[in-house]
Amino acid sequence: MKKRRINLFGIFIIPIMIMSIIGILSMNNENNSRDRTNILIFGIDGLETSNGKGTRADSIMLFSVDHNGGHPVLISIPRDTRVIIPGRKSLDKINHAHAYGETELLIDTVEELFKMPIHYYTKISYKAVEELVDTLGGIELNVPIDMKYKDPYANPPLVIDINKGTQTLKGTEALHFLRFRSGYPNQDLGRIAAQQQFVNALVEEIISPTNLLRAPTIAKTFLNNVDTNISKGNILYLAYKGFISKPNELLRVTIPGSSKMIHGISYYIVEDEDIANVKKQYLNPSKALATNIKIEVLNGCGVNGVAARVAEKLEDHSIAVSEIGNYEVNNLQQSFIEYESKHKKDAKKISKLLSIKKLIEREDEASTSNITIIIGRDLEF
C-alpha cells in the first residue's frame, strides 16, 4: 500500500481538513451517532464554468476523521480507477462520474466503491491553486526536469514552459508544475514525487511566521474558490487546532491497484479485497477502552511536562486520563504499565499505542487507578 502520496489538489488538504472538522464540530449531536465522518475532496479538470458542468474530476480523495475530529486519513483514488458509475451501462473511469452527473453522481460513485456514506464534499477549481499561491507570494521549488508541454485543446489551452532548477513559482507556474504529466523517467511516480515536493514547500510557506500573520487573507482566498457543504466558521482557530499544532498526524494512502489496458484504454484496476483492506486498516472505528476506567500517567524520567504530553496523546485517541503526576523516582530508564487483571486488554491497547513493551499485572488491586502508565527515558515525547 502506497503511503504519503498526494495528487494535484492535495495542496488544499490543510484548509479542507480545517473546514471538515468545523462541520463536524458544528453538528455534534449528529456526528456522535456515527463512528467516522467522510468528506469527498476533488478538483475539476478545467475552468470553473457553469459550476464545472461537463468537466471531469482531476483528483479524487476521501478524507475521514473520527467523531472527535481525530485519527485523520486521506485516501487518494487514482482518476483512472475502473468503477461502477450508478446509472451507467458499463464500467468506466471514476473521474468521468463528475462529467456525467456532477458532484452528486461522483459522491454516489465513491459511496458505491467504498460501500459507505459520504457526508460532505469540497470541490476545488484551478483558479483556487493559482490564487492561493499568489496570495502566499509564490513557492520556492527545485524543478527536477525541464517541463515543456502544449495542449491547445485544453480548457483553457495549456502551455507549460518551466526550466529545470531552483526558482520561485507564481500561481500560474505552480499550477503548470502540478499539471505536468509527460517527461518524467518513471511517469506517474515522478509526478507524484514532484507534487509531494510542492506540498512540503507549500506547508512550510503557510505556517511561516509571515503568512500566519496573514491567515485571514489566506483563508478568504481559499474560501472564495471552493464549493463545499461544510460550515466555514471558526476557520482560523481550527487551523491551529486541526493542523498547525500537529502536522504529522494525517495518514496519506493511495488505494492499491494495477494498471491495465482494456479495449485500448488504460485503467487502474482495484479489487474488492483492496478496498476491504483499506477500510479495515484505516476506516474502522477506533476500539474504545472499557467504560469508567481510571488511567493515571506518572513521570518517571524527570523531563518536565512529559506526563501531560502522554496524557494529551491518549486523549487524542479518545482515551481519557484521570490523573497525571510524578513517579517515586525521576531517572527511570524503561517505561512500563501496571494494570488490574480485569483491564489486561485495555493495558495492551495502550502499550501498543505508546510503544511500551513492559506490562505488569498488579497483585494488589487497591490502587486508585485501574491502569498506571510510568514514563521512563526510553520514550520520546
TrEMBL record:
Pfam families in alphabetical order: LytR_C, LytR_cpsA_psr
TM ranges: 7-27
Family matches, as InterPro entries: LytR/CpsA/Psr_C, LytR/CpsA/Psr_CW_biosynth, LytR_CpsA_psr
Secretion signal, residue range per the UniProt entry: none
Residue intervals of the Cell envelope-related transcriptional attenuator domain: 56-207
Entry keyword set: Membrane, Transmembrane, Transmembrane helix
Domain LytR/CpsA/Psr regulator C-terminal residues, every copy: 292-378
Alphabetized NCBIfam families for the sequence: lytR_cpsA_psr
Family from the record: Belongs to the LytR/CpsA/Psr (LCP) family.
Annotated protein name in UniProt: Transcriptional attenuator, LytR family
Organism per entry: Natronincola peptidivorans
